[in-house]
Amino acid sequence: MAQPRVSNARSARRRAGDAEAAPADNLRSTVQSLAKGFRILEAFNADNDEMTLSELALAAGLDPGTTFRMLNTLVDLGYVAKVPNTRCFTLTLKVLDLGFHAIGHKDLRAVVRPALRTLVNDVYEAASFAVLNGAEALYIERVRAGIARLGVDIRVGTTVPAHQSIIGHSILAFLPPDHIAKLRQTPPRETISALHRIGWDDIGPSLAEIRRDGYALRDSTLSEGLRILAVPVRDPDGVAIGAISIAAPAARISAEDFRSRALKPARAAARDIARALEAGGSVGFSP
N or C: which end of the chain has fewer CB within 10 A? Predict the structure, then answer.
């Protein structure tokens, strides 16, 4: 693992010194503990995406005790996660909630959005695209048909447990077994959860069916009265990058009619997204 850059630590200490030298009025109008939390988040970078507590303390210019408390808080809030079987920590994609246009998903959303709009125009049902964020499905784009809301209020930035959601199953079904084994060890967070208990040990038959058919068509696990059709978006090796889901009221359309109307356009949208990502060199998201 690359060691934290000394310049990062020095700049962090310089920032700390500047804060100590700031006028008293300025200090009274700021929350220093919040600033320290952001210094920990900013310590992560492309060269140091997984760091131990001591490495983070050095990079952020904080003492180990403060770093320990800040890390525990950030883990509880879901912005930082422990790396399984190591002493390291890493950022989660929840930081996108603070500025979703940031990081690489701006380009991903730009690719996904026109495909979803075309899909919604074809089927006139709400459509979403999600990727994995740890053990959760993170919705990074959503297009509604009209102004009606359907069941659970899913929006950009919403996360749901991957093993409890149909869109999550559509991703998990096309991941290597060792990736799924790691996800099973990820500590759960407080997010939207399924109407009925669904554990990791329960999902084997569902994933096998999706691998066989290449899609999922089920009643929603998150909201009563909805049918969900989900199709994975896969890279050239067949590994899921994300998934598209379409939601429709079960009282308005039968499962067979839903499949007949939506499956072909959903598969076309998934192919378009996969090709665009491959052409742009943007495939290869790891859970």
Answer: N
Whether residue 232 is found in the same domain as residue 205: yes
Residue 188's CATH number: 3.30.450.40
118 contacts: CB under 8 Å, gap ≥ 6: 265, 269, 272
- Retrieve residue 185's tokens: 């060890």
Q: DSSP letters along 54-72, please?
A: HHHHHHHT--HHHHHHHHH
What residue numbers bound the domain in which 144 lies?
Answer: 105-279
The Cα–Cα gap between 17 and 77 comes to 28
Pick the closest to residue 240 from 201, 211, 198 (CA basis). 211
Q: What are the φ and ψ backbone dihedral angles of 84, each rounded to 5 degrees?
A: -55, 140
The CA-based angle 192-154-137, given to 5 degrees, is 60
Q: Domain count of the chain?
A: 2
Same domain, yes or no: 196 and 135 = yes
Query: Regarding predicted confidence, which is higher, 120 or 10?
Result: 120
* Model pLDDT for residues 45-79, shown as the tens digit of each residue: 877 889 999 999 999 999 999 999 999 999 988 88
Query: For residue range 139-188, what is the model confidence (pLDDT) as tens digits?
Result: 999 988 765 556 666 788 889 999 999 999 999 999 999 999 999 988 77
Closest CA to 127 of 252, 259, 231, 14: 231
Name which of 157, 125, 127, 131 is nearest 142 in CA terms: 127
